[in-house]
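HUMAN: Spend a minute on the protein record below and explain its fold to me.
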Amino acid sequence: MSATVRWGVLATGGIAASFTADLLEMPDAEVVAVGSRSTASAKAFAERFGIPRAYGDWAELAADTDIDVVYVATPHSAHRAAVELCLEAGRAVLCEKAFTLNAREAAELVALARRRGLFLMEAMWMYCNPVVRELARLVADGAIGEVRTIHADFGLEGPFAPDHRLRDPAMGGGALLDLGVYPVSFAQLLLGEPDRVFADALLSPEGVDLNTGVLLGWDSGATALLSCSIVADTPLTASVTGTKGRIEVPRGFFYPEGFVLHRDGREPEEFTVPGRRDSLQHEAAEVMRCLRAGETESPLVPLDGTLAAMRTLDAVRERIGVRYPADTV
């Protein structure tokens, strides 16, 4: 692969625009094509960002052999179809989270990528954030002893109208897949897949979760208390407590500027990393590093970890009584 990695962008919404803008600031990245279900939307996006080719069909984008990797930025209800199309066409893929609507769909995509020997990664930018990576390293090195509790929350004030995608079961609506994926993934980054899952939720008339509380348990004795909401602006903080100390992450735990380490018998230690806290370039850089190295999976965002998170999200939905039409396919 050449020094410059050529990207295709599938979808033209807000997150696609943010990611594209960040890619254009990277000297070793080039956005060469964009695809949408609408030719007009694709052309407008291409003109906005100076992208050479615009396709009004996903299949045309996937078939473009001048693309090294496709960034799938659709709502998660379309992830399975979009990723499968790209993988079948031989393209590497970075797919937004939540990775799919359920663990079955995720497993099918991972199996396809592994069978074809193609790179696939969930766009869990939190895992690529240097501050989060340092936090995970300290925990793994025993800086706070054995982990006993994790707290994390992600809630938006709303309200969202009944016709909004966040209220639509067919679109994977509700707080859990859009927001809850962050607290769940944060906990599983540090402790792995839980042995027990408990949950309770307030559901909308459409049958999606508006406000959800989750308790995860591990055989080690560790627990995680997590919440997500689309009806309440929660603190958006996280903490990890161990037998010898704790780590506190301020508002915006999934893209933090830093954190504070409290250890028994020591003064609090503050860890910060310079740079834009909302940058998507860290995950883009990891994708490009993997592609140049010939790696089909990222060690920072491993596919087995993505599958484990999807299984936990499925378990939460089972306990709160949320089902999507895709679950019965």
Q: What stands out?
A: The first helix runs from residue 14 to 24. DSSP finds ten helices and 14 strands in the chain. Residues 26 and 256 are 21 Å apart (CA to CA).
